[in-house]
Amino acid sequence: MARVVPLLRRRFVLLAVTALCTLTAPGFAAAPRSATAVVNVVASFSILGDMVREIGADRVQVTTLVGRNADPHSYEPTPEDVQALTRAQLLVSNGLGFEAWIPRLVESSGFAGTQMEASRGVQVRHLQQGEVLDAGRKESRPAHGQAGHDHEHDHDDHSVGSVDPHAWQDLSNGMIYARNIAQALAHVQPADSAYFRQRATNYIEKMKKLDAEVKQALAAVPEEKRTVITSHDAFGYFQQAYGIRFISIAGVSNEAEPSAQELAAIIDQARKQKVAGVFVERSTNPKLAQQIARETGSKVGGTLYSDALGKADEPAGNYLGMFSWNAGRLVYVLGQ
Q1: What is the dihedral of CA 133, 139, 145, 147, to 10 degrees?
Q2: Measured between alpha carbons, how far is 192 from 59 in angstroms, rounded to an integer?
Q3: Which of 197, 189, 134, 183 minimizes the C-alpha distance to 160?
Q4: In a 3-state reduction of DSSP, which class is residue 117?
Q5: Closest CA to 166 of 99, 112, 213, 86
Q6: pLDDT tens digits, residue range 196-242?
Q7: Which residues, 6+ apart, have CB-to-CB distance to 291 below 8 Å?
Q8: Are the CB atoms for 218 and 82 separated by under 8 Å?
């Protein structure tokens, strides 16, 4: 194991560095332009915007509402967003209650195009007892039995049983997103349907390869080091798929911060559960995570990306690069 882990670390360093380049490999070269028009698409946040561009290439024009390094939880639509949606033929959102501001934006813009929720068809998960380190709120609700009701669920409800909208944190769900996006683009522009589906197929093949690599690398992390703390509960799907347990400070929204009393309870619980690493997220304040790491003796693991991509020229500047980066950080920090 001692020899395997360093090899896996090096593998994921290379993955993180080259992630931006992989999407220009054979299979992603743009096909000759057809005579059909470009599809005008609005995507709700950066991860979906990247997926649409990868599948649509030069046959789509994408406007992303919540940009890179921005927080979809606290987003307030602008007049420019209203104008963009007025011109759009297709609106791609996550669904599962993630973008609580979308219905108001659609209404104010008078949008009459096609709406598509990229998460359609995923197996929805709900918050479980112990996932949220929030000693001040003890409310517990039974999990919802039907996913059809989850879209109406308030995204800021942190109680047990509330829906987790971060389905893209499992690459198998990313594959579902890609199929849904290709289907929606083909619906809007039938003349290019074969082109969109082929690009989605190529994209999904890359996801399958990365999914296997991530599972292999994280399997090398010792069992006693598989529990970490993050800023908010965005990694539940990652946990289910790859076997790393994430405990959040603030629940599914990253806006809330614990009181001094709650923070003391968090630190106590983190000690009892032998948390191995504390990670921050790009759009959150790192001071709280750093304090918890000091108080518990855990490693500060650096940045993980949850709801937003990094800058375009950074390793986490696209969806597959984000996944490679997050896995690489976990392997490097927890494998020490």
Answers
A1: -60
A2: 8
A3: 134
A4: strand
A5: 99
A6: 999 999 999 999 999 999 999 999 999 989 999 887 789 999 999 99
A7: 263
A8: no
| Residue 149 exposure: Cα atoms within 13 Å on the Cβ side | 7
Closest CA relative to residue 282, chosen from 240, 326, 319: 326
> pLDDT tens for residues 248-270?
876 544 455 677 787 788 888 88
| Structural domains of the chain ordered from first start | 4-17+210-334 (3.40.50.1980), 30-134+162-209 (3.40.50.1980)
Paired sense of beta strands 245-248 and 277-281, if any: unpaired
262 secondary structure, DSSP code: H
Instruction: Find the length of the chain.
Output: 336
Q: Which structure tokens are listed for 90?
A: 């297709």
CA dist., res. 21 & res. 121, Å (int): 30
- Bridge-based pairing of strands 125-126 and 114-117 is unpaired
Residue bearing tokens 């999914």:
211
Cα gap 267→263, rounded to integer Å? 6
CB-CB contact of 180 with 118 (8 Å): yes
* 45: number of Cβ within 10 Å: 25
Structure tokens that stand for 137 in this block: 């709120």
Rg (CA), the chain: 20
Dist. CA 109–CA 113, nearest whole Å: 11
Answer whether 167's CB lies under 8 Å from 96's CB. Answer: yes
Return the bridge partners of 163, or none: 126
Greatest Cα pair distance in the chain: 64
